Amino acid sequence: MKLKIIVPITSEVFNEEVKKEIKHYVDPDDYVDVENLNYGPASIECEYDEAMAVPDILNKVKKAQEEGFEGIVIDCFGDPGVHAARELVDIPVCGGFEPSMQIALGLGQNIGAVTVLPNVIPMLHDLVAKMGIEKRIKALRYVNIPVLDLGDKKKLEDALFKESLDAIQKENVHVIVLGCTGMMGVANNLMNRLKEAGYYVPVIDPAFAAVRMVKTYIRMGLKHSRLTYMTPPAKPYTWWGK
Question: Strand, coil or helix: what is 3?
Fold first, then answer.
């Protein structure tokens, strides 16, 4: 399969880690290309950041289809531009939120997500409402670590463990979803630490979930419904600076 991973930020801080981790998500004969934005935010941590990222995300999405890619992952838990991208192209497009939640819902009754900053929590409430899964989401928490500081894995794992354990004990959470695709490489360690604390609780890596979901759609010969994601009406569009 030929897959495009769009890291929807201008910073390249995650690129090498994404390329390393992606090897665990794909099959040996898959071709994967990782690309950043040319313009937009250095990270996505609020609605403003997301809005600034979407125009170039859509540019990259359109270009990927023209270059023959079979599926696209927008590598962000907030699913920035995902629905617009599905209107724009005829290949599967996923972000981190929908796939990880769909998998989590099949693994346990009560779901909790742990994200980066409090600014992200209102965005997650909106995404939960759009999916219609409010009754299953029991906790939305944050570790209070900015996206660009997630490279300190020890600090991240300790904070995730604390918030996850608290959500399990106080909010009866049965499945944990990592609320940022920048939290790469920590899901298994967190799951093992929770097991050592007496709780076998699945932990979902959203980037892993997104890649495998796109691959599943491709393998099944499926793309998103044109009754939901209708092709945009033809009209002129004026871009800033043009």
Answer: strand
